[in-house]
């Protein structure tokens, strides 16, 4: 075969044979792969006729309450754990109060001393008043023969001075009582108690740590009322003209579109506000300007946790439930 005929017929034939061999080889090594279902089911509209879609954030009905220490100091006791239900007045944690109790003992001793001085002053004033009364009686029945006017005046002045000492002693007692009451109030504030009935959501304090008396970025303890739960939803400003606060609304957890709960309107904040920038806070959003709407639902109908994101759908006018 000449070189020209080989180039014309031989090379294409070799290429075809190589291609066929490659296809056969790939087919032999090809394995059947099972169809993989998606890890999560995408959210779908619960009604026919259109909805407003938004992202909601679950929060407690009371919103999250950050509990700080009222008085600074090292923590001596922590009485709660996350998830624990508490009642208003239950102890959450306590600050070391040994120095304050020692100061209170000294102040109570000072109060007792002030009360003793008051009793002494009152006794002296009563004695002076009795002497004045006797002197005036003698002056009336015997005139200046029994007692001179100078002596009578001196006794009257002594009685006034004794009355002034009583007033001063009473002021000292009142001051000492106020100091004791202030110390007792400080001691009571060193025991941090739950302000409401609710559930402990976070505990960020440990025994031995120093608790400052200020609101911290990460609260020492976070409380919330979990019945009902709220969903704070931001309606994009472009959807606000179509939003009906009385329309039906539903929510589904992210990654579980097959689970759905019907929502009840709690309130609408009638102010379109700029979106909160991404800071990691529980109230941040991603829209430019939004109308904030808060819905409520029963956690028995759908288990959820504060801080969890939900897909929220609000029906448009005329929409029909699927």
Please give a structural write-up:
The chain is an alpha+beta fold and 322 residues long. The protein has helices spanning 3-29, 98-142, 149-189; strands at residues 47-48, 51-60, 65-67, 73-78, 85-86, 91-95, 191-193, 198-203, 210-211, 221-224, 229-236, 249-253, 261-274, 289-297, 309-315, 320-321. The strands form 4 sheets. The protein has a 6-stranded antiparallel barrel. A hairpin with a 7-residue loop joins β12 and β13 (261-274). The longest helix has 45 residues, at 98-142. The model has no long low-confidence stretch (mean pLDDT 85).
What are the main properties of this structure?
322 residues; alpha+beta; 4-stranded antiparallel β-sheet
Overall helicity: 25-40%
Q: Please, how many helices?
A: 3
Identify low-pLDDT runs: none
Radius of gyration, in Å, reads 42 Å
The global form is elongated
Largest sheet: 6 strands, antiparallel, barrel
List the helices and strands and how they pair.
Blueprint: H1 3-29, E1 47-48, E2 51-60, E3 65-67, E4 73-78, E5 85-86, E6 91-95, H2 98-142, H3 149-189, E7 191-193, E8 198-203, E9 210-211, E10 221-224, E11 229-236, E12 249-253, E13 261-274, E14 289-297, E15 309-315, E16 320-321
Antiparallel strand pairs: 1-16, 2-11, 2-15, 3-10, 4-6, 4-9, 5-8, 6-7, 8-10, 11-14, 12-13, 12-15, 13-14
Short summary:
With 322 residues, the chain is an alpha+beta fold.
